[in-house]
Amino acid sequence: MDRRGNRWSERDTNREKDDERHRNRDHRHRGYGRGHWNGRCGHGEERNTLRESHLRDESWSCTETDARHPGTYRLVPSTLPYCRMHIQTIAVRLEFNPVLEYNQVSSGNRDKICPIRCFDKSGSLLARHVRLLVNHFPVTFNPETIISRYNVDIKPETPMRHRHPVRQSKATLYQIKEKLFFDNHTQFPLSVIASDGERNIFCAIPLPCGTYKVKIFSGEDREDSSFQCTIKLVHEFNLLKLKDYLAGNFLSFPQDILQSVNLVMKENPTRHMISVGRHFYPLEYQETDDLKCGVAAFRGFQHSLNSTYQGLALSLDCSAMAFRKRMPVIDFLEENIRGFNIGQFARYRREVEQALKGLTVTVTHRKTKQKYTIMGLTDETTSSISFSYESPEGKMNTINLANYFLEKYKIEIRYRDIPCLDLSKNNNKQFVPMELCMLVEGQRYPKENLERHASTLLKNLSLPPPHIRKSSICDMMRSNSGPCGDVSRNFGIKVDTNMTKVVGRVIGPPDLKLAIPNGKVIRIKVDKDKCHWNLRGKSVVKGKTIQRWVIVDFSASDQNWLNCKPFIQKLISQCRNLGIRMEEPLFYQDAAMSVFSNVARLTELLEDVNDRACKVGRSRPQFLLCVMSRRDIGYKHLKCICEIKVGLITQCCLSNKANMDKNDQYLAYLALKINAKLGGSNVELFNPFPHINGKGHVMFLGADVNHPASRNTISPSFAAVVGTINWPAANRYAARVRPQLHRQEKIANIGEMCLELVETYARLNRVRPGKLVLFRDGVSESQFDMVLNEELRDLKKAFSEKDYRPTITIVVAQKRNQTRLFMEGDVDGDPTSNVPPGTILDTIAVHPFEFDFYLCSHYGDLGTSKLTHYHVLWDEHKFSSDHLQKLIYSLCFTFARCTKSVSLVTPVYYADLAAYRGRLYHESVMECSPKSMASSFFSMASSSSSWVGSNGERFYKLHADVENMMFFI
Q1: Distance, CA of 188 to CA of 182 (rounded, Å)
Q2: Where a domain ends, among 388, 407, 440?
């Protein structure tokens, strides 16, 4: 049997019709498969030993060679116990083939690299098996289906005069296409049409191409708009190609076909729900989810399609988001603004403008679907506004706004002494009384603006326990507005609404290395249930001696000022208990929180502190302890000045936490961070890293990109690469941060950044690492090709120019995925009903032939544990599934600032922190730089990619005394 649960003979029989068509292609790719099989199982005696051990230990028998794959033997078990390892066919190739440096996709594109295949199928390490449910729902489709993509070119019928064409909004495009389909419903049946929200439509049947006229009603006071819609066939997607890929007969990932199927699956919720990015939310909220203040929490979902062992599968996960309620504008103001009294409107005018500006409303005095954006409030009250209009007789008359509504709509305006809403657009003045306007649905409310009670309620809804999340997911799958609607069925796509049953493995935590007060290193066992350890009575492995440090107290003039002497003594005592020798501070410097808002004063203060410390301590201070009375946006200025200009390590803390009587845990947290930032070692693995701990040095790298918010269209993205600089502990990191073009996911000059880290490693250890393991964060499956064919090539090119050729493994870590695991029986879970730490899923729900797995590496004490999806793209170290899973899980225990395993492999976690630090630098530079400098910066950023490697980097060049320290944690 294979991992789908099918017998090889049955699967081969079903493919006999396709053999002739694929034989030549399979022949071309056979070298690819052989090369990476050797990479998974070793060479020579090691391979034969593996084969013999399976025959001996598991009672496997060897059958005839597969005629389509010479050199492949099938090992068939004589018994099939219920175990994940035993429900698959093990293929052993007896001939020797060297590992290919590049995987060739086709004879016409020999240099293209594609992700490696995993031939050992899954790991065998385990502490126990667990029966699980995964929120993957099997999808079946008709392989004979052809999905046609059409382009809809929409142009105004009347040519624009002296103006450039205006880009139509998504709402307008949707309205035009909706009218086109309604007017021509026999030619364009909605039941077999899906849209991407822009100018593309997908259909399961042929559509008539040509040009059609569409007329849109624009309102009573404006002329109707006419458009010409030209339908043109662009491409046809044959789902047989997707079937071939899922069966392993087609190496290149058919991204365009999967995207078209994904759009079809999204069409039903798009028509019935509010779409926000990739999420869908209902039009109405539940009464229990009212957050007050004119805001409610809406429960929605996000879904995607995945290639898995059981074929195509839909994964769906629930979410919650705060939206403004659909309600009259005046009612919204009464709920949203505390103490609002419409009779005293002038008193609340500023707050009203802040609450309403930019929101979207519709009017109630006439029937229309048109939406308007609030530009502000009128200067005059409703009773004072008059305007000129042309009467039916052609005369120009002046009329009061309130009287106009009374005469034309028979509506008497109630609130005449308050301003109107300014709904003007494109120089067309339009003032409407507030009482005739209603907020439309689907307008997000920033969660940071919520009151404490509302924020807590939204958080609880966003983090439901497993049993509630599982029930919500199943309800959404069966909902009439969910992804399993009539549209997808009309495309021949069906979804099983039952969760997939799987068997997961739980692997044990590694043993750790700590010390005791006398300095002796000891071995400790990690708690298997919660994967944490206690530092009471223990010390860090290597405590850094701290002789020169300074306290800068920004809370000195605030009500929450620091009680300095007790805090210093408790911090020193806690550090010494942890094996970190800390002396008294060189001096205490008081300051004020207001300094944070003045960059010049803050810079002067920090430079003076540094100069004074150099005089007192005869050397630069090792770090500054900065005490703040509250969180402040000036934090970014502090970090930017210290880490780029002055060259100081800083550690911030809050005065209210520092003053607490029982704050040992908080002080220990500060001590761990300080020790790690200064080059100490908090915790290490007791046993060597699996598989790669032979001869030679190994370097772990993490890479990530931080993008600006979606509303920001100018700011650059920031790439960060971190790398270990010690071996074999591999728990100290250096970082390199670079700006790059706006929202560019590809890391520009990744080879140069990694080479810098390698040279740093060589200076500290007098040898270059011979093995590199790079963990890449933030890329989707559609971007794997970019990582392999652009970033990997850049990496190899930079290394080869320095005559440096290490072996490389690249693993993508995807934290943003919709896959969730649930215990099949509640009694099997921990008190939170979450899956236990160390749970691995590498069957059924993973890729049918590539090397990937899901790992829950942390204890989930809040909500439902979220898995990290690890996908191996390139491997020159011949990792087995066991080796790599154990390696990644072990690395999750080396995170420096806590005493538990984390949910994301440590190099990626650090890269994420470093990239975010680059974002803070940018915000600080832009806020404190003259406008001309900012304008020049943006001009460079948008003009040429050469800016990435030249002018842009000088704004964020780390100080030499900081760049090789762990300043980012």
Answers
A1: 8
A2: 440
Regarding whether 701 and 670 lie in a shared domain, the answer is no
**383 and 257 in one domain?**
no
pTM for the model stands at 0.86
Q: Is residue 926 situated within a structural domain?
A: yes
DSSP-based three-state secondary structure for 773: strand
Closest CA to 136 of 849, 856, 820: 820
Give a yes or no: residue 300 inside a domain.
Answer: no
Q: Alpha-carbon torsion 126, 130, 136, 142, what sign?
A: positive
Q: How many CA atoms lie within 13 A of 272 on its CB side?
A: 16
Q: Can you say whether the dihedral through the CA atoms of 863, 122, 911, 748 is positive or negative?
A: negative
Tokens of 73: 């033997």
Q: Which of 440, 459, 482 marks a domain boundary?
A: 440
The confidence band for 947, taking pLDDT boundaries of 50, 70 and 90, is: very low
Token representation of residue 767: 């040898």
Q: Which of 77-91, 297-311, 438-452, 873-887 has the lowest mean pLDDT?
A: 77-91
Residue 72 sits in the same domain as residue 162: no
- The per-residue pLDDT for range 58-70, each reduced to its tens digit, is 333 333 333 333 3
Three-class secondary structure assignment of 549-606 = EEEEECCCCCCCCCCHHHHHHHHHHHHHHCCCCECCCCEEEECCHHHHHCHHHHHHHH
Distance CA 264, CA 484 (A): 10
Query: Are 723 and 658 contained in the same domain?
Result: no
What is the reported pLDDT for 561? 92
Residues 840 and 771 in one domain: yes
**In terms of pLDDT, which residue wins out, 48 or 951?**
951
The two beta strands, 698-706 and 771-777, are parallel
Specify the 3-state DSSP secondary structure of 511.
Answer: coil
pLDDT (tens digit per residue) in 569-613: 999 999 999 999 999 999 999 999 999 989 999 999 999 999 999
3-state class (DSSP) for residue 920: helix
**pLDDT (tens digit, 9 = 90+) per residue, 277-308?**
899 999 999 999 999 999 999 999 999 999 99
Residues 6+ apart with CB under 8 A from 896: 672, 673, 676, 682, 683, 731, 966, 969
Which two structure tokens, joined as six digits, stand for 423? Answer: 């709904």
What is the Cα–Cα distance from 754 to 759, expressed in whole angstroms? 9
Please report which helix (H) or strand (E) contains residue 356, including its range: helix 345-356
What Rg value do the Cα atoms of the chain yield, rounded? 32
**95, 144, 212, 818, 852 from 254: Cα distances, Å:** 32, 16, 33, 21, 18
Q: Would residue 116 count as lying in a domain?
A: no
- CATH code, domain carrying 666: 3.40.50.2300
C-alpha span between 705 and 820 (Å, rounded) = 25
Q: How many other CB atoms sit within 10 Å of the CB of residue 568?
A: 18
- Which residues have C-beta within 8 Å of that of residue 697, sequence separation ≥ 6? 727, 761, 765, 767, 768, 769, 770, 771
Q: Into how many domains does the chain fold?
A: 5
| 713 plus 838 within the same structural domain | yes
> What digits encode the pLDDT tens for the residues 712-759?
888 999 999 999 999 999 999 999 999 999 999 999 999 999 999 999
Supply the mean pLDDT for the chain.
85
Distance between CA atoms of 189 and 102, rounded to whole angstroms? 47
* Domain span holding position 647: 543-677
Selection from 752, 779, 800 nearest residue 873 by Cα: 779
Q: Residue 894 falls within a domain, yes or no? A: yes
Range 174-196 average pLDDT = 92
pLDDT of residue 159: 63
Looking at the structure, do residues 752 and 841 belong to the same domain, yes or no? yes
Q: Output 162 or 914, whichever has higher pLDDT.
A: 914
All residues at 6 or more sequence positions from 865 whose CB lies less than 8 Å from its CB, including other chains: 820, 821, 834, 835, 856, 858, 903
Co-location of 732 and 865 in the same domain: yes
How far apart are the C-alpha atoms of 880 and 47, rounded to whole Å? 13
